[in-house]
Amino acid sequence: MPYGEQLRAELGEARAARRIDSSPRSRVWRAEIGGRTAIVKQAAGGADPEGRYRRELTALEIAARRGVGPAVLGTDPAERVLVLEFLEHRPPAPDWIVGYAEALARLHASARPSDAGSLPRWEGPGERDVEAFLRLGGRLGVPAGPGVREELTRLVRRLAEAPAGALLHGDPCPGNDLHTADGVRFVDFEQACLGSGAVELAYLRIGFPTCWCVTAPAPDLVARAEAAYRRITPLDGDLTDACAGWLIRGDALVERARRDGPDHLARLRNRDWTWGTASARQRLAHRLAVVVELAEGRSDLWEFRAHCAALHAAVTVRWPSLRPVPAERPADS
What we know:
This protein is α+β, with helices and mostly antiparallel strands. The chain contains twelve helices and eleven strands. The chain starts with a helix and ends in a 15-residue tail after the last helix.
């Protein structure tokens, strides 16, 4: 465990250290340090570990204003090491998304105008995503008319120009939310950025698009969660646009390590694959249905909505054995 002289002098000796599971991009230990349990995390593998270390530290410092992340007990910049407060996770309640949404609202509201530039701006879908989504329709026998492309181009522009005043976690998934005695707290801020809060509140409807754990909670529960979010902070951004943006991103069908590569939407025609609680085709079918419902009555998404409805019908006919994504998160998450 990378725990050097500087940290020992500041925090005390580390004892009973043991390695715990983490992503390939980091090395994580649990240890007894200075009479308390702590987490030692080192940014290691993957691209730009130095940048990820700085990004996580900055996000944790911002999140500390609202108490929605672990406290930073010490740092070793030379080794890219963070020593963090240990948070005891409890089994989430059946209505866990309500507390999750409240914590997400506090997280988003923790950023201040003076934080602009301290973290990257959230990057939404681009022209490549638009082209891939349109090709998917052609491959499934549902070609898109020119109006669909025009509406998608404007959608991408709206998302790029959306407010960027919220602190976004970047991957607020089951497993990165810890349900503690003091409420929900978030960990693993390596992908944190500044953007519109709608991008992450949309997770509840669109099915946690960057996550292994896709769920589709009951509509009344989602309504309660969204109302809880708005009681804490106004929603900056458009929820329907955010869901539509997640739909057209093929990279949201695979785990992060596999995102920079082939056109994942194109792969769906010939094969399916499972990631966590749902397959790629299940994810696509769920997201199409969500966007069809949310975009009803939107004149600026009229043709896109009709195209999504036709795509959803084609998907259910072509792959009739597809089941809905789970309504509840696994008990051990």
